[in-house]
Every structure is written in structure tokens, then in C-alpha cells.
Amino acid sequence: MRLSNRFIAIAGSGALALVPLAATALGQEYYISFFSRILVYAIAAVSLDLLLGYAGMVSLGHAAYVGVGAYVVGIFFYHSSMAEPLFTWPFVCNGSENGLVVLPLAVIVSALFAVVFGALSLRTKGMHFIMITLAFAQMLYYFFVSLDTYGGGDGLSLYSRSALPGLDLGEDVQFYYLCLGLLVLFLLFCFRLVNSRFGLVIRGGCDNERRLKALGVNVFAYRLVCFMIAGAGAGLAGALMANQTEYVSPGLMHWTLSGELMVMVLIGGMGTLFGPVVGAAVFLSLEEILAMATAHWMVYMGPFLVLVVVFARNGIFGLITSKRGSND
Fold first, then answer.
1. Fewest CB atoms within 10 Å of the CB: 80, 83, 107, 265?
2. What phi, psi does 4 have (nearest 5°)?
3. Do the domain assignments include residue 328?
4. Which of helix, strand or coil describes residue 158?
């Protein structure tokens, strides 16, 4: 990582760590919840950047894994509150509000869905790949709309957040620092990943897949693992999103959320890891500011996105660091 990038990352982490203190001092506790939302979306955007910015895979179905992660938390909470098992065969599986159970499970289940969908999607390329990822996401969306037990299209209320030993996630400050800690850990993991041999293969497959195959590299397997990791990261974001809003709905799987995540990656800078964090902050902040001024905030958001694409080819993060490459 270049020195300037490292300085910006450290300075940004320090600034985010001070947000709850500043918001409390100014009597604006609402911003603690708002920045928690930014951190959660940043995790989802970084996970998409692994596909979009490094592996060159344009997925319009990334929201599916966010929704799966959220529904794992919601469904387990529902069965815990109703005191009835989720299923009884081949073993009894009870509901749970324990974060040590539902958060890892949300990551695992989302990763499994990503493996299944990825194994099928990666057999296609170009527009066919984009459309099949979109089709899988919409399939899940309509499936959960049809589940009347879990609220159908109206969604499912949680009434409280998951429980973690030593933490009170119902307290916004503690939940904020949990989201910040998980974002930092996920960024560190992704940084090590993309700068490892695995990352070199993923980027090489994007640039010249035929040459890698000629060298005997199983590009499909590497891409599938990348797809799985990205799905796991999105599932973590979904689990946190469910806890933050205390509500889950099929809307979390809709293609519009996939589009928003893609815009965040493009605004911040593809293939930078830190760029999607900047993109999530800018996108959600502009949405918040413009929505207070007009109900048609997207009319003003559009020209801004065009300006970023035209004048900041590497995104805002790339513009700040005068970045010319595609990796950290």
C-alpha cells in the first residue's frame, strides 16, 4: 500500500472512531445511527468491489446475499420469539437471538448461496453473466415475497437487536463500534487477499484468462472462491443491516440495491477497497441531504454521478490520491 493511501486509511479510521463522540457532544445522536448505516453499506460495497474492481465480474445480483444474511437473522429471531423450532429433521434447530450464532451463520449461508449461484453464473460471460446474476437475485426476491410466515412482501420486524456477550447492541454507540470494527477487519482481510497469489490470479484472469489457463491455472475455481468471499461479505452486511433497522424485507434482495452498491463502488473507485467506503459515505450523505430538500432527489443525484464518471475515472478516492493504477 502506498504511503498516501495508508495515511488516508488511518486518518479515515480515526475520524470514523470519533463520530459518536462528536455527535454526542453536538447533541446530534441521530448521526451515530446514520454513520452506522454508512459502515454497513461500506462492507457490502467493498465485497462487491472484489468482483467488480478486481475480478472484472459485473454482478447485478449482489443484493441477494445481503438479503439472505438479513433473513437469517430475522428468521432465527422470529422462531426464538415464537418459541418454536425452525425445523425438527434431521435434527432440532431452534431460533436464536445470540449474535455469536446468527452473525456467523448469516455469513456462512450467504457464502453457500454465492457458491451455488456462482457455479452456474461463472459458466457464462459478458451480458449473459450480468443477466443470470440478476435473475438469481430476483428469484430469491419473489421467493421471500411469497413466504407469508415471515411477513411476505411486508417484511419481518425484529423488535430488538442480536445479543453479544459484553455488548449491548441496543445502544447505538456500541453497535456503531461493532460495525466499524467489522469493516476494518473485512478491509484488512480483503487487502491481504488481493495482494496475495490468489489476488494476482483473480486480476490476471480479468486481464488475460487464456494465458492463465495455458499456465495450468484453474481460473474457474479461483473466481468461484472470490464469488463466495464476496457473498459472505455481503451476508455480513445484511446481518448488520437487519440489526440496525430491526427489520428485514424482500426489498433487500431487489436489483435496485445491487445498483446502488455498484454506484457506490464506481463513485469511490473500483479496485481500491477504500474507494467503496468513500463511495458509500458520499452516496448516502448526498441522498440524505437531497432528500431533505426535495422528493425528487434522484434528479440531482444523476448529474453528479455523470460528473464523477467523466472527470474522476478512478473515482473520488483515486482523485484524492492521484491514483493511476487499479490496486492498492
1. 83
2. -65, -40
3. no
4. coil
H or E stretch covering 57: none
| 3-state SS, residue 232 | helix
- The answer, as to whether pTM is greater than 0.90, is yes
Beta-sheet strands, E only, within the chain: 156-157, 247-248
Examine residue 169 and state whether it is found in any structural domain, yes or no: yes
Q: State the Cα–Cα distance between residues 247 and 231, nearest whole angstrom.
A: 21
In the chain, % helix, strand, coil (3-state, to 5) comes to 75, 5, 25
Helices (H), the chain: 3-17, 19-25, 30-49, 63-82, 99-121, 126-145, 172-194, 197-214, 219-245, 255-268, 274-293, 297-311, 315-320
pLDDT digits (tens, 9 = 90+) for 146-204: 999 999 999 999 989 999 998 999 999 999 999 999 999 999 999 999 999 999 999 98
Give a yes or no: residue 314 inside a domain: yes
Q: How many CB atoms lie within 10 A of CB 243?
A: 29
Domain count within the chain: 1
77 burial level (CB within 10 Å; 0-12, 13-18, 19+): buried
Residue span of the structural domain in which 236 resides? 3-320
For residue 190, give the H/E element and its range: helix 172-194
In a domain, 327, yes or no: no
- Looking at the DSSP bridge assignments, the partners of residue 93 are 87
